[in-house]
Predict the 3D structure of the following.
Amino acid sequence: MSTIIRVDNLTRRYGERTAVNHVSFEVAAGELFGFLGPNGAGKTTTQRMLTGVLPPSEGTAYVLDHDMARDPLGAKEHLGVVPEVANPYLEMTGWQNLMLAGELYGMKRSARTQRAEELLRELQLWDRRADRAKTYSKGMRQRLMLAMALLHQPDILFLDEPTAGLDVMSRRNIHQTVKNLTRSGVTVFYTTHNVEEANVLCDRVAIISEGRLAAVDTPEALKSHFAESQSVQVAFASPVKPEALSDIPTVAHVEKEGDKLRLFTSQPGRAATEIALFAQRQGLEIVSLNTLGPSLEEVFLSITGRGSHPREEKS
Amino acid sequence: MSAFLRTWAVAKKDMRVYYLKGPVIIFGLLFPGFLFLAFAIGRDLPAESLAPGLIAMALFFTSSAVTPAVLPFETRTRTLERLLAAPLSLGMLLGGDVLAAFLFGLFVSLIPALVSILFITSTPPRLGLLAVTLLLSALTYAILGMLFSSPPTDNPSSVMTISNLVRLPTIFFSGVFVPISHMPAWGKALAAFSPLTYTTEALRAALGQETYFPVSLSLLMLCLFAAGLWAVSMALHRRNMSRRLWM
């Protein structure tokens, strides 16, 4: 697949503070690329530089072969953007907001009205199109912003925390729309601090921490680099204290998770056998026994919490 | 053509969101009128000599009234970033704001202009000159309003304070109430630096009254003010626009 976004040593400083520090990565056409990081890590600043809203202090960002510092307008024609903190015009109706978006992208009237109807129906806003946006719920406003970003049928869609604070229905609606878009070949740059969302949706994930890129890979590949985070989860019929299992040689440590115990180990198979023997010796009944890989959340916390840099992007 | 249509889209949005509101239009009409009456009532001045001042004030206050608040308001309501992400150059974005202000100022100022022509002045007006003066002045003050909006703030009242601090004193040394020829030497010198002076002068000429500056100079100065204010505004907005994003 061809590279559609190419970022090289991208840096942004606000006075003395460096918000984004020499970040480099590439995104392939048609990819759903997750940009993951805790609050204040530099995600939004990176997206703003990639969408031509903010000039970089140093480095380059090429989007669709346009240098976003020198020639942002050429690329912007083909980008759809839903900024993190953004609103439609609340005094205008949903329909008027969409028409404005179409006009800003130079769409002809017939094209924008047809496309607006399609999107409003898909995003379940058609019945409210004549209402002012100020009467919309947060979820409806966010769906309207998504419709405004998709009206001109962009090649790349940038979404910055699109589901933050939304109800389940709105979140699912947005997730489904994003999945449909990637199926139709649209590249999606999905900025989020929600690890599970990135895990479920994204082809690849970049993790940014304190302005620096900590890792870029597929969610499963990232997990595989954290072998020490593999574990065995066991539930007994009667209560067992975690300390009772900590003597098992292959177990690094034990955590209580509700009515279950989770034993962290680099050898989950052997640990499971030893747990079964332990239960036999103690006369305990095992209700369930599962081996678990590390979650992306654990990888994320491991990287952002410890500041380790386990893996650079493959060239 | 495409650039103009996008600029027009911004202007239409401004008109919908900021201008086509009852209170804004009423205020645009009433404020210059009240200011004019506050000066004219109780003075033994012929209404005819005050007509150019009334039209000039309407142009000055209405064309520059709303633009200063648009960008701070868009910063506050979080609608600005969406505009900045669209394929609009800074010129198109600010041009749209100026176009809306220009049309609003022109529309509102036509009312005192028509009242003056029909009911106040006795000399037949030079309609071509009147039209050119109205167009040039509305454009100049719309751009002036854009200049006031350049500080990177999300507080509309801050820029409105700056705007009023500049605009209100300006009317007293621009020949609006007292013709330039009747002003002291320091007043004449000060008047030369105000664009409102040239609007008032050109309007006096259009309404068949005596002027201090030649009308060609007044029109030229309005063009220069428009070009200069646009250049300064663009430079300041280019410097400050991204700073609005982290407010």
Summary: Chain B touches chain A through 25 residues (CB under 8 Å).
